[in-house]
């Protein structure tokens, strides 16, 4: 065997009978004649530099199984391998691994190309680069979701607040119509001749909410949970349902009145609005309670001047809706002071307050 070295420094070998035949260096692509035995450096043909124009494909010496580089196989590109690993990781970590995979893939391809056969890993670099691009593309929908979800939630919350305000507005108008027809507001609790609670003020409002058919199905001398009346729970009108309260049953409502000293529903027989000396616009009529109750059950929010505040809201972000005796709906912020809330609950407390 003849061992010789190309001008680029690559050590090569070939059979002695191939001396004088043309071959091409697999590293630098120079074309030259295989030297005779004893020569250590292969002479380049033509200019001896670079790639020979119009050179024929490698000769039998280069393609022969007896011809091979004497210094062993080429090495694998570490950057190409890293690109492949990061490309796979980008399918999980998306953008954070995708960008490095793309960069290392490009660098790895460049290293392989410039090494002229000494470094391999083209397939790994290309695969890593493609996976990195795919990983980065997965980032786009995630970013869009991150931007859109809060916007959708805010839009839904605003729509629920508006729908809730409309419900309370309708209930206030029904209250006013009842007041005009009877000279007083409905009692919070309708009681039987024996004084026992029967059903809620919400049942009395049905004729003023275009729910005459449902009202006529009630046996008004029986309690809300009598065999007949309990079957009507599932027929709760939509106006009693707060759209923000998704965890309540279809037969429960959070729209309740406040009962207790100086409230709009202090009198068990119902009050005339002329007794609202604090002003109709400064007195809460119906509010969102924290806890839902069966809509026909006589169950509302007790309020005591020296007791804890009743459980209000919790279904909207940073506050709750309340409708006042004049029919106006206000959103009460969650950080509203206790004195202001107590002043809005009373109808004749003499406080100098106004809705937020």
How does this structure look, described?
The protein has a four-stranded antiparallel sheet. It has three domains: 1-72, no CATH class; 75-148, no CATH class; 183-345, no CATH class. The model is unreliable at 44-72 (pLDDT under 50). The chain starts with a strand and ends in an 11-residue tail after the last helix. The chain is 34% helix and 16% strand. The protein has helices at residues 60-63, 78-93, 95-115, 122-182, 201-204, 212-217, 338-345; strands at residues 2-5, 11-14, 22-24, 31-33, 68-69, 75-76, 119-120, 189-191, 197-200, 252-256, 258-259, 284-294, 301-302, 319-324, 329-333. The protein is α+β, with helices and mostly antiparallel strands and 356 residues long. Helix 2 (78-93) packs antiparallel against helix 3 (95-115).
What's the Cα radius of gyration? 44 Å
Structural domains: how many: 3
Model regions low in confidence, pLDDT < 50 over at least 5 residues: 44-72
Shape: rod-shaped
Tell me the β content: 15-25%
Number of strands: 15
Order of helices and strands: EEEEHEEHHEHEEHHEEEEEEH
Terminal-residue CA separation = 100 Å
* Oligomeric description of these chains: single chain
């Amino acid at each position: 065997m003849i061992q010789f070295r190309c001008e680029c420094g690559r050590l090569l070998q070939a059979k002695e009978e191939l001396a004088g035949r043309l071959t091409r260096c697999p590293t630098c692509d120079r074309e030259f004649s295989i030297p005779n035995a004893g020569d250590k450096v292969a002479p380049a043909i033509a200019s001896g530099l670079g790639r020979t124009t119009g050179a024929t494909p490698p000769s039998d010496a280069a393609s022969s199984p007896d011809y091979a580089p004497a210094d062993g196989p080429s090495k694998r590109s570490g950057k190409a391998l890293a690109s492949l690993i990061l490309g796979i990781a980008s399918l999980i970590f998306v953008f954070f691994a995708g960008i490095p995979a793309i960069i290392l893939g490009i660098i790895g391809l460049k290293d392989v190309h410039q090494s002229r056969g000494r470094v391999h890993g083209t397939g790994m670099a290309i695969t890593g680069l493609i996976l990195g691009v795919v990983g980065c593309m997965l980032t786009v929908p995630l970013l869009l979701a991150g931007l859109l979800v809060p916007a959708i939630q805010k839009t839904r919350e605003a729509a629920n607040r508006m729908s809730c305000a409309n419900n309370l507005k309708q209930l206030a108008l029904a209250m006013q119509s009842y007041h005009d027809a009877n000279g007083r507001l409905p009692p919070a609790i309708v009681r039987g001749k024996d004084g026992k609670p029967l059903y809620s003020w919400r049942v009395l409002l049905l004729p003023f909410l275009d729910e005459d058919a449902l009202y006529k199905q009630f046996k008004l001398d029986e309690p809300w949970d009598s065999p007949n009346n309990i079957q009507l729970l599932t027929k709760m009108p939509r106006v009693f349902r707060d759209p923000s309260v998704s965890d309540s049953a279809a037969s429960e409502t959070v729209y309740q009145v406040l009962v207790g000293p100086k409230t709009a529903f202090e009198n068990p027989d119902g009050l005339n609005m002329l007794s609202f000396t604090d002003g109709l616009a400064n007195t809460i009529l119906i509010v969102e309670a924290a806890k839902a109750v069966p809509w026909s059950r006589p169950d509302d929010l007790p309020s005591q001047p020296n007791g804890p505040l009743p459980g209000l809201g919790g279904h909207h972000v940073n506050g709750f809706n309340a409708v006042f005796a004049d029919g106006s709906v206000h959103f009460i912020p969650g950080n509203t002071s206790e004195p202001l809330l107590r002043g809005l609950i009373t109808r004749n407390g003499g406080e100098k307050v106004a809705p937020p």
